[in-house]
Amino acid sequence: MSVPSCDEFDPNALTLEQARAAILQACDALTESETLALESALGRTLAEPVAARIDVPPAAVSAMDGYALRADDAVAGRELMLAGTSAAGHPWDGTVEPGQCVRILTGAVVPDGADVVIMQEQVERVSETGVRLNNGGLAPGHNIRGPGSDTASGTALFAQGQVIGAAEIGVLASQGIAELRVLRRPRVAFFSTGDELVPLGQTPGPGQIHDSNRHTLRALLAAYPVEALDYGVIRDTEAAVREALQRAGQEADLIITTGGVSVGDADHVTRVLQAAGQVGFWKIAIKPGRPLAFGRFGNAHFLGLPGNPVAVMTTFALLVRPALLQLAGRAAPEPQTLNARLLEDLHKTPGRKDFQRACLETDERGWVVRAAGGQSSHQLRAMAEANAYVVLPRESSGARAGDWVEVLPFREIFPAC
Prior knowledge:
By secondary structure, the chain is an alpha/beta fold. It has helices at 16-26, 166-174, 213-221, 238-251, 268-276, 309-327, 381-385, and strands at residues 33-37, 50-51, 61-62, 66-69, 79-86, 100-104, 116-119, 123-125, 130-133, 144-145, 156-158, 179-183, 187-193, 197-198, 209-210, 227-234, 254-258, 278-283, 286-287, 291-297, 300-305, 338-342, 346-347, 353-363, 366-371, 388-392, 398-399, 404-409. The longest helix has 19 residues, at 309-327.
């Protein structure tokens, strides 16, 4: 497939929405599942629905420290005989008779015969075995949590596809559920290609650079429920690239590469994909991040991202992220943007939707935004200084200070931010 021209207005370029829709249409959720201990299930996706097994709480319990008594005896000024104490884990096993009360602590079982709990601040001790009520007129059930008032046995708790967070862990633990059936994590293979790349800790020689994109990808993938397979740096030969792709096509659900997906003499990824894979080469009308390859190799989906480091992060956030979420059985909603007042002029060439790195903050007027560092796609440091993108429309030539602009906060697309 030929690669479209590099003009800013490229009639063959897909919109971001078109590219995203095509990727999501292809990336069905995985169906294989595994059983995990509850403490290992955080962030995973349920493979089957879960229903409540028991009532929580299992019995009527007190909502506070106080005294349990009959509603008929809840009369201001009345003196009652103290018959015993009910504490959490140590219920009083008698029956509260008329004229009696029981000292009760938060979470303790309300004894038989009692149907209200009066808070301890509204009771005065008059003797070792007697109390006087300073409040009255309490309706049955006052300060009592009924059995199943949190969750009743048999209630549907979570549907298939529910992502397990901290609250879900707590609910499941309250049910005594020790194991869960969850979807298998997608396996994502990634590697860099290029003889110019040297590992960290090694001094680059003439024409060499450190491999940053692979480390960026590993950090980005760590925020998702995936199994990351780091293949390292692959030698810049067709045989080495073919071997890496064949291995990844057998082991992974998704392959991610950066750079090398073009039509140059050294673009071995392109040749191997064209010979043995199913891949389409796209131009996407966004900046940074115009070139992208998407298809399949072996059993895996393939995403070839641009080589410039800012474009790697941008295309990952906008196009890889939804694919990862959907493969993991999660919803992949559009990230939410907001409007902010621009503090300085921003410039762009019409033809592509521009994602300019920016600093989003607040002042007395509300949300305001300004540019963060250089905007070239090789200037990765600006990403570390920024916390948002200003999104400038495709046809726009920029925006002026004081304009309201669309802003995409990093927290919407980079979970670790």
